[in-house]
Amino acid sequence: LYKLWGAARDKVLAYASAFELGTPKDRAEQAQRYLSEGFKALKIRLHADTVQEDLAYVDEIKKAIGDKMKIMVDANQPTDNVLSFTSGPKWDYKRALTTALELQDRGVVWLEEPLGRWQFNDLAALLEKMTSLYIAGGEGNTPLHEFLWIMEKHALDIVQPDAVYESLTQVRKIMALCEAFNVHFVPHHGLCGIGLAATLHLLCTYSGWTWAEYMYDPPYRTIENYQCLGGIITTPLKIDAEGCLSPSPLPGLGIEIDMDRVKQYSV
């Protein structure tokens, strides 16, 4: 599919995206696992009651891996998209700014969803305070016009539409807006291997700086039970020695489905 659309690349750097909150020690151990498996970056969630408790996660990870991996942070603040696992305080602008400045000092690449998805003015004000930390978001901003508002208001450095929530055609339009407004396009992906393959094809038609989100948090979310839906998908995507993902050479999205397994689950 990416060749049909006009290939800009054939591989994309992937970051390991953790699902569980865990503890600072637990997340540091997970970071060491990611490093040993070849990942160049990771993303964790911060949902503690205080800023200092949140920062403890980042500090423990940096103790464990040093500067060997890039670190991204997700605050999951849009309220109507926050699941039960992301329990924690609702951030206001002050909490978001305090956290962002601390993360910037620690060399974190981006802070994702630090405020509500329609708080365009507050997001723009937060972005203006940053010198190296990117402000990311947009996974829940589904209509195309909302992405136009985000860019017109300079509310995000990184836009993260989701091809599963939207459609491939719609996300390609958002990618074109990113190119027009000089905003980074780094799609969100938190679902199974079908969505991952679709996102990867989109990314391989984009020539700018970007990353591929790889939802992977053993033992909770593994390649087998999450990406492959317990064996229904028989063509999992795995990173190479450089920490990159490449699209399958098979037709379309490059996914093969075990229909016998589908029938087994549907009985």
Write the layout of secondary structure elements.
Blueprint: H1 2-5, E1 12-17, H2 24-36, E2 41-45, H3 51-65, E3 70-74, H4 93-105, E4 110-112, H5 120-129, E5 134-137, H6 144-152, E6 158-159, H7 168-181, E7 184-185, H8 193-203, E8 212-215, H9 223-227, E9 244-245, H10 259-266
Parallel strand pairs: 1-2, 1-8, 2-3, 3-4, 4-5, 5-6, 6-7
Antiparallel strand pairs: 1-9
Helix pairs in contact: 2-3, 3-4, 4-5, 6-7
What's the N-to-C terminus distance?
Answer: 33 Å
Order of helices and strands: HEHEHEHEHEHEHEHEHEH
Mean pLDDT: 93
Overall outline: globular
The secondary-structure class comes to alpha/beta
Number of separate helices: 10
Fraction in beta strands: 5-15%
Q: Provide the helix percentage.
A: 25-40%
The overall strand count is: 9
Gyration radius from CA atoms, angstroms: 18 Å
